[in-house]
Write the C-alpha cells for this entry.
Amino acid sequence: MTFAFDNSYARLPDRFYARLPPEPVEEPGLVKLNRLLAEQLGIDADALDSAEGIAVLAGNRVPKGADPLAMAYAGHQFGNFVPQLGDGRAILLGEILTPAGERFDLQLKGSGRTPFSRAGDGRAWLGPVLREYIISEAMHAFAIPTTRALAAVTTGEQVYRDAAMPGAVLTRVARSHVRIGTFEYFLARKDSDALKRLADYVIDRHYPEATRDERPYRALLESVVQRQARLVAQWLGVGFIHGVMNTDNMSIAGETIDYGPCAFMDHYHPSTVYSSIDHRGRYAYGNQPRIAQWNLARLAQALLPILDVEQDRALEMAQSAIDAFPQRFETAYLDVFRAKLGFREPHPEDAELVTALLEAMAEANADFTNSFRTLCDAVEGDETGLRAELGACAGLDDWLARWHLRLAREPMAADDRAGRMRRANPAVIPRNHRVEAALDAAVEGDLAPLDALLEVLRTPWQDDPTTSAFQRPPEPREVVRQTFCGT
Ligand code: AMP
Ligand code: MG
C-alpha cells in the first residue's frame, strides 16, 4: 500500500510537535470507508479495504513515507486561555499530494495517548467518530469548507466514558490542522521565531498570494479574516451550530474542523444551543459571527510580534483587520441568504427582507430548512408548504408581497429560479434525531440507517420520495435537546 506522502509539517522545528507513532489497537475492524474521497486523494480504495489498509487506518501499521506526530497548540476554551492543548488523541500520519497536486493532512483521531493527552485516554468511541463522519461529509455536500472523513474503524477495545463503549478511530482529511491556537501556543512562549516560521508555513501552504503583498503577515491575517467570515456565513445558511468555537477548533485554512457537540437547528431561533457544556450560550447559533471575530482577535494578537517591529504600527494593522470583520461577514452573509431567497445581484432592501423572514420563522416556530425549501416551491406558484410552515406569522402576506416585488426586479423563468434556489436550500440536513438514531443502530451493529442517511446526504439538494422521511422535523418524542462532546 503506497501513499504519496510529503510531510512539510514534520520538517518544521521540533518544538512544533511531538514525534511518535499511533498506539496499536487490539482488533481493527472497518466500519466505513469513503471510497469517493479515497479516489480523489489518489489512494487505492481496495487497498485501504484490505487487512493491510485497515491496519493503517487503525494505527497498527505506519505506512511507508509517513512521519507520524502529534501537533502542539494552545487555545482559548470558552474564553479562557490554556497555554498547552495539542493533539491529545490524534496523530498526523503525514501529508499526501493528490493527483491534482493538492496537499492534504491524513490524521488518525482516537489513535492513543500522546505527550499532550493530560488526563485523557487518547481514544475515541464509535458514536462521536461516526457523528463526525456524517456531519463533515454533509458539510462537504453543502459545499462548505470542511475537514473530511476517509474512514472509521473500530478498535476491538472498550473505551470508558459514562459506560464502556466500542473504541474507534476516524481518519480525518484536512487542508491542514493548523489552528488559531497553534499561533497562540508560540505567543504564550514568546517565541517570535516560531511565530514567523509558522506564519511563513501557513502562507506558503494556504495563502500564497500573501507573499506578493508588501506586508505578508498582514495579508495573511486579512485573508484568514475573510475566510472565517465566509465560513460562518455559510454555517448560518444551513442552520449549523458548531458548538465549541474555541480558538483551538478554528482552522487557519478556514475549514470547519472538530465536530463535537455540533448540530443543525430544526426550528429557527437565533439563541439555539445544543451543546451540553455550553451553559451560557456562548456558541449559540446567532452568536457565531461575534465569536469568530473574537477568535480572530486572538490570532491578530498572536501575530503582533511579527506584524511590525513598531508595536504601535502592528497594533494598528491588527485592529484594522479585526474591525473589518463585521463588514466582511455581512457581505458574505447577504451573499448566502440572497441566493436562498432567489436573488442574484445585491440590493439595498435585501438585509431587511432576510431579517424579516427570520423573525417570521422565529414567531411561527418554523422549521429553518423546510421554510427555505418551501420558498422554492412558492416561486413556482405553490404556496401550500410555505403557508403550512409560516402561516402562524401575522406579517406573512406583507412579507410575501415585498419578496415578490424584489424578485420582479430580476426577471427570471420560475423554474430556473426555483432550481437555483434549491441548490442554495438543501432539502436534507443531518437532523439530530436522524443522526442519533443512525448512531444508536450503528453502535448496536446495524449500519443500515447510517448508510441510508449518508446516501441521501450525498445529494442534499434533491428531493424525491426516498428523501421525504429525512426532511421531516422530529416528532415531539424524537426531539434531541442536547449534544455531547463525546470525548
Ligand atoms: P476538543 O474538545 O476535542 O477540541 O479537545 C480539546 C483538547 O482535549 C485537545 O487538546 C484534545 O487533544 C484533548 N482531548 C480530547 N479528548 C481527549 C482524549 N480522549 N484523550 C486525550 N486528550 C483528549
Ligand atoms: Mg479540538
The longest helix spans residues 216-237. The pocket of magnesium ion (ligand 2) is lined by residues 248-249, 258 (CB under 6 Å). The mean pLDDT is 97. Residues 428 and 468 are 8 Å apart (CA to CA).
